[in-house]
Design goal:
This protein is elongated. The chain has two domains: 97 residues, Winged helix-like DNA-binding domain superfamily/Winged helix DNA-binding domain (Arc Repressor Mutant, subunit A, Orthogonal Bundle), CATH 1.10.10; 138 residues, GntR ligand-binding domain-like (Four Helix Bundle (Hemerythrin (Met), subunit A), Up-down Bundle). By secondary structure, the protein is mainly alpha-helical.
C-alpha cells in the first residue's frame, strides 16, 4: 500500500485527536514522530475503504487501538484520513463483518475483541462448505467437543466459584422442567456448558466455546427432536453436575466424555427415529 503524506504536514504540527475511549481521550499525530506508530495516515489511492480497513487492523494488532476504544465520528474520520464519508462507511461495514468493531446507535463505533466472532465465522464456514445439509458437519463438531470439553469439565471442577455452581444448578433445573419446550431446554443446555467454560476462568477457553455456540445450538435442536434425546442429555448433565459438587475432576472428565459420546450417537439418529438401545437409561437416579 502506498500512502502519501499530506501536502500541508509540518514536523511541529499539533497532535490530532484520532481515538476516543470511554475512560480517556488519546491524541495521536496525523504523521508519526520519530519512534512513534501512527494510528491513521492520510490515504490518496484507489480502493480507499480497503486501505482504511488495513490501517485500523494494523493499529489493533500493534496495540495503538485497543478493545473499548471509540473511533471518531464518520465525518471526523473522513477528514483525518482525507477520504470521502462513503469510503469510511464501507470500511466500517467491512470491519463490523470481520468482528473488529461494533456500532451502537447514538453512541458510536467501538473496537471489539474480535476473537469470538472471527472464530465463529471460521467454524461456521468449515461446517457449511461442501456439505449437503447440517448432518455432514455434526461428526466434526462432536470430535472438536471431545477434544475440548472433557478437559474443561475437569478444570472447572477444581476452579469453580459458588456463583458458577449456582449457574450450573439453575441450568439443570430449567432443563428438567423444559423437556417439552425446545427453546427453553436448548438455551439452558447452552448455559450449562458455558457456565463450565466460565468456571475455568480462562478467557481463551471461553472464547473458543463462545465461538461455536451457533453450531452447538443447531446440534442441540437436532438432538432435542430425537426420541429420548433430552432425557438422555439430562442423565449426563446431572452426572457432570454431581462431579462439580464433589469437586472431582476425573469424574467430571469421564462424565463429560460419556455425555459427548451420547451426543454422537443421538446425532446419527434421524429426528423422531427409534432409540439404539445403547444409551444410559433416561430415568437413572444420579443426584437428587
Amino acid at each position: 500500500m502506498s500512502v502519501l503524506r499530506p501536502k500541508t504536514a509540518e514536523p511541529a504540527s499539533p497532535a490530532l485527536d484520532l481515538r476516543y475511549s470511554n475512560q480517556t481521550i488519546a491524541s495521536f499525530p496525523q504523521l508519526a514522530r520519530a519512534g512513534e506508530i501512527p494510528v491513521y495516515k492520510v490515504i490518496r489511492n484507489a480502493r480507499l475503504y480497503e486501505q482504511i480497513v488495513q490501517q485500523i487492523e494494523e493499529s489493533v494488532l500493534n496495540g495503538s487501538l485497543k478493545p473499548g476504544d471509540q473511533l471518531p465520528a464518520e465525518r471526523d474520520l473522513a477528514q483525518r484520513l482525507g477520504v470521502s464519508r462513503t469510503a469510511v462507511r464501507e470500511a466500517v461495514k467491512t470491519l463490523r463483518e470481520k468482528g473488529l468493531v461494533e456500532a451502537y446507535s447514538g453512541r458510536g463505533t467501538f473496537i471489539t475483541d474480535g476473537t469470538s466472532q472471527a472464530a465463529r465465522q471460521s467454524f461456521d464456514l468449515m461446517v457449511k462448505i461442501g456439505q449437503q445439509g447440517q448432518q455432514e458437519g455434526l461428526p466434526h463438531l462432536v470430535d472438536l467437543r471431545l477434544v475440548l470439553e472433557p478437559g474443561i469439565a475437569a478444570m472447572a471442577a477444581e476452579r469453580y466459584t459458588d456463583e458458577d455452581l449456582t449457574a450450573m444448578r439453575e441450568a439443570v433445573a430449567v432443563m428438567d422442567r423444559s423437556q417439552k419446550n425446545a427453546e427453553a431446554y436448548i438455551e439452558a443446555d447452552l448455559d450449562f456448558h458455558l457456565a463450565l467454560a466460565e468456571a475455568v476462568a480462562n478467557p481463551l477457553i471461553l472464547s473458543l466455546i463462545d465461538s461455536i455456540v451457533g453450531l452447538l445450538r443447531e446440534q442441540r435442536i437436532r438432538i432435542f427432536n430425537v426420541e429420548g434425546g433430552p432425557q438422555r442429555g439430562q442423565f449426563h448433565h446431572k452426572r457432570i453436575l454431581e462431579a462439580m459438587e464433589r469437586r472431582d475432576p476425573e469424574m467430571a472428565r469421564s462424565s463429560m466424555r460419556a455425555h459427548l459420546e451420547q451426543v454422537r450417537q443421538d446425532s446419527q439418529i434421524p429426528p423422531s427415529g427409534k432409540e439404539s438401545g445403547k444409551h444410559a437409561p433416561a430415568g437413572s437416579k444420579i443426584i437428587a
